[in-house]
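Q: Got a minute? One more chain.
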Amino acid sequence: MLFSILTNTYLCSKLLSAAMLIIGIAGGSGSGKSTVVQKIIKGLPQGSVTVIPQDAYYKDNGHLTQEERARINFDHPSSIEFTLLDKHLSMLRKGFAVEMPIYSYLTCARAGESIPVKPTQVIIVEGILIFSNPRVRRHMDIKAFVDADPDDRLIRIIRRDILERGRSYNQVLTHYETYVKPMHLQFIEPTKRYADIIVPQGGANQVAIDILSSRIMLNLSREEQGKPS
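A: Always. Here it is, folded:
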């Protein structure tokens, strides 16, 4: 009896692993990644997709002083707890639920609670640095890099940081010049070479979004056809 239960659990995990599609969507800050993700999700069956944002895996810096927090380089790979992200993607692929952290840019700390995430047919991992880590990158069946002109990205960054992160206009520009631009050139732009698909103009590129959506729907259709009637 126990052997039968373990065997069935193993087979279910293997089937889920084979059917699950993990998609990585990377690109510079302000490139339009979130818009691309939203448009992809809009065209998929409800409940078939889960989004794993890289931002949830920033290291907990709640113990730092206000001055120290202001100097955190969020655009450097060392700011991300990739080990935990790698572990969670492995668990989801095997059919196990995970507890995703909740991170606040305002406090630079993780919340005491977490978000339960169950494995779904499609997992989308989104973030500026997700292609920079080989262990995380190996989980991805499809890798898309959202590209945009530096001027367009800067405009979006200014709007976002003022409205969502409480920074002044001058603070945004200083942060961009000190961290965002040099880190983009050093760590983010080079990862474009790992992409299977380049999405220029972000969410405005409906053709690229349709191609990604069609590939996902094909995977879902194959899985549906493979289910016993």
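A: The helical segments are 2-19, 33-42, 66-70, 82-93, 134-137, 150-164, 169-188, 206-226.
Q: Perfect, thanks.
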